[in-house]
Specification:
single chain; elongated; Spore Coat Polysaccharide Biosynthesis Protein SpsA, Chain A
């Protein structure tokens, strides 16, 4: 008979709580009349967890590659159910109360997330830093970057269809697997729902595998790297705007605010800000092509328009024009220097020509090199 639900639990030395979790899952299947199985994705346990899983009639999948994500991927891919419920084997989640997930999945949702903040976090179930800083901040960043409505990005109990799992094309091996699942589901426009979930203190006497700072950083790093808009494009546009406006003002003449005088020396810094901002935008373009062509991010309509707007020929023409303008300005500055018999330059007027000249030549060379590399990355098109 076709199995409807597979409960997948990652396991690394969970002998203290594994049996109760498996029994709760089987009790749920029996009570609700659901055809299901329990899959234990073992990641190298040495404390007798395998014997316990075997005694409790769970399927054991041995996953050699270390990591939370690796274990789950191995277990999920070996599961036979139409729907997958993944949850930690530490007895912090109630496997007898999975019906809200099943109902949402039967309604056609691709991913059903638990929300511990809506369901309730029992005393001692979550460390203070996780509850008031880590989870809220990372979940907020996830919602902001990926336009997701999920309130709890890191709930360990969640459900999804086997079909949706393959659509998500998950790659990570560590704790950031939890974030990747929501990010990929959002980027691929899968249907996501959320249900309240209660988090209880886990039943283990040993410390959890989760490392607050290391794994928190891995989640944050993943969210940032998968959002080139926020990592490169938005900061780049902001820096370019500030640098360009300030430079145009100072090219026209000195600016005095109160007792502070801004002149050509400040122009050097504003030109630098402009160049740095432009570098950010170039990296956005290169990152976008690399991640899409290597199937790390899904292809969008905007991506196809990017290649229509930016191509090698346009880039070379624009770049060379900027270099030529920079050379012309340099010649003008040279003539002014010649009138000083090539002596010390104390006239700020010459610097107001030299600095834009150098800036334009640098921008032109960057555009030329970017266009060449951009075209190489996009050769598949």
């Amino acid at each position: 008979m076709q199995l409807e639900v597979s409960v997948v639990m990652p396991c690394l030395n969970e002998a203290e709580t594994l049996a109760i979790c498996i029994r709760k899952a089987f009790s749920f299947f029996k009570e609700k009349g659901i055809q299901g199985e329990v899959v234990i994705a073992d990641n190298g346990s040495t404390d007798g967890s395998l014997e316990i899983a075997n005694t409790e009639n769970a399927r054991i999948i041995n996953v050699a590659e270390k990591g939370y994500g690796s274990a789950l991927r191995g277990g999920i891919e070996a599961a036979n159910g139409t729907y997958i419920i993944m949850g930690d084997a530490d007895d912090s989640y109630d496997f007898t109360n999975l019906m809200p997930y099943i109902i949402k999945l039967r309604e056609g949702n691709d991913l059903v997330m638990g929300n511990r903040f809506k369901g309730g976090i029992k005393k001692g179930a979550m460390p203070f830093l996780h509850k008031y800083l880590g989870n809220p901040v990372l979940s907020f960043i996830g919602r902001l970057f990926f336009k997701s409505n999920i309130g709890d990005f890191h709930c360990g109990l969640r459900g999804f269809s086997k079909e949706a799992y393959y659509k998500m094309e998950l790659k990570t091996t560590g704790m950031e697997f939890a974030s990747e699942m929501i990010v990929k589901a959002s980027l691929k426009n899968l249907k996501i729902a959320e249900v309240p979930t209660i988090l209880s203190p886990d039943g283990r006497t040993r410390p959890p595998h989760l490392n607050t700072w290391r794994d928190g950083w891995r989640h944050l790093r993943f969210l940032v790297l998968y959002s080139p808009n926020w990592l490169f494009l938005i900061p780049g546009m902001l820096l370019m705007f500030i640098g360009l406006i300030a430079s145009l003002i100072l090219i026209n003449g000195p600016l005095t605010i109160g007792s502070i005088n801004f002149d050509v020396h400040t122009l050097l810094f504003t030109s630098g800000i402009l160049l740095i901002g432009f570098q950010f935008i170039l990296f956005y373009g290169l990152t976008k092509v690399f991640t899409v062509e290597n199937e790390l991010l899904p292809k969008s309509k905007k991506y196809d328009r990017l290649f229509k707007f930016i191509n090698l020929e346009k880039g070379l023409i624009t770049g060379f024009l900027m270099v030529i303008i920079g050379i012309i300005l340099s010649v003008l500055a040279y003539n002014d220097w010649q009138q000083l018999s090539f002596g010390d330059i104390n006239d700020a007027k010459i610097f107001r020509i030299v600095i834009p000249a150098i800036t334009l030549m640098l921008l032109g060379v960057q555009i030329i090199l970017f266009s060449l590399f951009f075209s190489i990355l996009g050769l598949k098109k």
